[in-house]
Amino acid sequence: MHVERIELRYIQLPLKHPFETSFGRSFRRDTIVVRVWADGVEGWGESPVEDGPWYSYETVETAWHVQREFLVPMLLGQEVETATQVFDRLAGVRGHNMAKTGLEEALWDVEARQKGVSVAQLLGGTRERVASGVSIGIQDTPEELLERIEGFVKQGYRRVKIKIKPGWDVEIVRAVRRAFPDLPLMVDANSAYRLSDAEHLAALDEFDLMMIEQPLAYDDIYEHSLLQRRLRTPLCLDESIHTPAQARAALELGSCRIINIKPGRVGGLMQARRIHDLCLERGVPVWCGGLLEVGIGRAHNVAIASLPGYTLPGDISASDRYFERDVVDPPFTLNHDGTITVPTGLGLGVEVDLEFLEHVTVRRETFTPAGAGLTG
Ligand code: OSB
Ligand code: MG
Fold first, then answer.
1. Radius of gyration over alpha carbons of the chain, in Å?
2. Beta strand 133-136 with 159-163: parallel, antiparallel or unpaired?
3. How confident is the model at residue 245 (pLDDT cuts 50, 70, 90)?
4. Is residue 143 domain-shared with residue 28, that is, in the same domain?
5. Which of 72, 112, 298, 369 could, after both became Cys, cross-link 122 (CB 3.0–4.6 A)?
């Protein structure tokens, strides 16, 4: 694939409901959509950054900077044999996995279109539908949380994840469990606890949770291994895992028994597949996490989740759980059995709604080998 042209778009899409985690509340999705042209074929990807460095150190502005000054020049005018090589080609830039992801995903889309297959097929996906879960933020009251859960359960979601933090944890989970005794349920702390909270967290063991996601520091692997020994409930790591080597370390140390793989967090689909392969080999279940992606990143997440090791329902919900209107057509919808269908069309298998995308674009820049970026 000869990379001819790259376009970056900073887009802002209002969320239907504010999303609150232990690190704050967001009302709008600020993210970067990437479009790449190679051999006359265009492909799309998403760098699922946020407006501030809360979940990750990356933001819209850091990603834009790193893409514009470093990553785009490494690819533009260059020959890339297959999308599997893109992440390694960008390895000279340390970290900045979200910045890399949009570019890498776009080349998977191009390659799939060229080969006449879907991105899921190109990745080696084996599922026609992926099980869909929903991640519900911290609410103002327990009653509101129960009401929201009921709504999602009625829609058919296969499991519910609730966000917890000190002061919104054991008693909340007890109330949810009482109201929904058989619901596949898990919690995500987004690093809100310390190892000294081990005893408090052990109180969650009685609620038959599928897992506790990322209770300790965002950059810790070791202390999670100490915590895991004190809990019956499996731990799942999210923020702490950015590379296959970190995944291996966490599994060797017993820091978790499940891994949440987000393409955006690990630098794209190839790195996601490498972590998937490592876990599959060891019999460790994985699932596809989410970063409130718009339809483009969501399509890539659905594609990677069709690989055989993704055995648990992911944070891949329907478009209408997040947005009034998505940037792809058709939007992603939930089937009656709580799954999302893996598109079988070329590439992403959904069309980007260019008119609506234009409407939500707040900054755009196009790069060609000839030189200067064209700002629009
Ligand atoms: O920790 O998994 C997380 C959203 C933004 C940042 C971090 C997380 C999340 C979610 C939402 O839990 C997952 C989704 O529905 O996309
Ligand atoms: Mg998480």
1. 20
2. parallel
3. very high
4. no
5. 112
Please report the pLDDT score of residue 370 as a whole number.
79
Q: Is 161 marked active-site?
A: no
Give tens-digit pLDDT for 6-23: 999 999 999 999 999 988
**DSSP label at residue 322:** T
Structural domain total, the chain: 2
The model carries a pTM of 0.97
Residue of 158, 288, 292 with the most ligand 1 atoms within 8 Å of its CB, for mutation:
292
Q: What values do phi and psi take at 357, rounded to 5?
A: -60, -45
- From the CA of 55, the nearest ligand is 1
Share of the chain above pLDDT 90, in %: 97
Is residue 24 very low, low, confident or very high in pLDDT (cuts 50, 70, 90)? confident
User: Angle CA(78)–CA(81)–CA(84) in degrees, nearest 5?
Assistant: 110
Query: What span, in angstroms and rounded, lies between the C-alpha atoms of 8 and 37?
Result: 12
Say whether pLDDT at 372 is over 60. Answer: no
Task: Quote the CA–CA distance of 125 and 356 in Å, as a whole number.
Answer: 30
Sequential DSSP letters for 179-197? H-TT--EEEE-TT---GGG
Helix/strand/coil for 156: coil
272: domain CATH number is 3.20.20.120
Taking the C-alpha atoms of residue 242 and residue 258, their distance in angstroms, rounded to an integer, is 15
pLDDT digits (tens, 9 = 90+) for 132-144: 999 999 999 999 9
- Residue-range definition of the domain harbouring residue 244: 121-351
Cα 125 to Cα 9, 69, 291: the distances in Å are 29, 34, 21
Q: Which of 154, 251, 170, 181 is nearest to 215 (CA)?
A: 170
Same domain, 207 and 331: yes
Same domain, 346 and 362: no
**CB of residue 47 inside a 6 A radius of ligand 1:** no
Please state, rounded to an integer, the average pLDDT across all residues of the chain: 97
- What residues does the ion ligand 2 have nearby, CB within 5 Å? 188, 213, 238
CATH code (residue 107): 3.30.390.10
pLDDT of residue 371: 63
Q: Tokens for 1? A: 């694939």
Q: Are 138 and 83 in a shared domain?
A: no
